[in-house]
Amino acid sequence: MSILTVRQLTALIKDTVENGFPYVWVRGEVTNVSRPASGHVYFSLKDGDALLQAIWFRTDQKEREAFDPLTGEVFEDGPRVSLAATLKNGQQIVCAGRLTVYAPRGSYQLVVELAQDSGEGQLHLALEALKQKLAAKGYFSLERKREMPGHPCRVAVITAPHGAAVRDFLRLSAERGTGCEIHIVPVPVQGDDAPPRIAAALDAENRRGWAEVLVLIRGGGSLQDLWAFNDEAVAEAVFRSRIPVVAGIGHEVDTSIADMVADLRAATPSHAAHLLWPERRWYEQRVDELELSLSEAARRRFAVWDRQVETAGRALAWLSPERSLSRLAERFEGLRQRLALTLPRSLERADARLRPLEAAMHRATDGRSLERRLERIGDLGRRLEEAQSRRLTRAGTALDDAAARLKERGRRALDGLERRLEREEIRLAGLDPLAPLERGYACAMTEDGHFVRSVHDLRPGVSLTVKIRDGEADARVTAVRAKGETS
Questions:
Q1: Start and end of every OB-fold nucleic acid binding domain (predicted)?
Q2: pLDDT category, 437, cuts 50, 70, 90?
């Protein structure tokens, strides 16, 4: 058996206590409250004949901010005061914190990080039990949560008709929800009759089927103030809703059961409007981008067609029969000029060579032999001229044949280009959005000049312009039915 020193024993106790109880919840009666100048709060928790020393350091006595750092929404009721400022002897509270051992006195104490009135502590226990029950039933499952519509035009807001929450939501929806219709469904958001009224409103809006999104909002408050949205009946109504639900209960730090079951959770009521509708500038920028993209695509397409027409024109000009005949005529004239220049010189050279031979022949032969030879030479000259004439005739015939072939090729090429241009004209006509009007169809446009493509673009009372082949007419929508619906 080893003998421990006081320091060793205290260290063992400190290690056992602090590691064995890293975070605890304790309920008890406040006594011995002390508030020195340091700002720390010293007190004891009493339960029967048991006493636990506690210290609440000033840095852990947090107050909630007076504004929402996410959206800038100002809380009308101001920040919540920490319980440390109102703690008094005899008060029943629930504390959360860690146990530490103070070696110089050989005592242990609770370092408080959070304290609530005992009534709120009971609510927290009930809230945790309900969370576990609903989680086991799959109410919080991400797989069942539905996506929000891209830009909902019909929104039902279930909340108190007067208050900062509905004012903030309507202010932001006016800035962002362009062309949207919002119905306020008034319900109490606090008190014993609030849960059944909220659940009934959710069910009624589902039966009505008008809204694309249901918004459930309430301003900030204490846990007791927000308790209606931790009710199981409200959670079940949100869960069975066929319409997507957005919940924004309290401030950023508040999370209710309704928030957890909803398809989308907003930090505050005004944040719910932020989530439903992007800024109007985003839509304007998107329209500008689409317009620029369409203009650029049309410009590129017409540039391609211009190049094709220009290329076809150059090809037609090159293959033109007139141009081909002109080139052949120029070539023929060149050959004729060359022949006209070379033939006399050739004859002169031949004559120059014949004259010495003729003289020699006169000397070497009698006159009759010379005459016969001269006749032969004359005959050879005539034959040479005839051969030259036939050669020129064949060349002319060949040129005529070539001209005829080129003319036929040009005609076929021109026919092919004409057919291609006809096909392009047909394609261009098919791209005309108003072409179907010539076949007896009509198209409808909204007052801002957009074509109507879906029943979701319409609602009763909207004015339209109906374009037909020979004019247009003004109309007003009296009813809207989707495909498959009956009147």
A1: 4-113
A2: confident
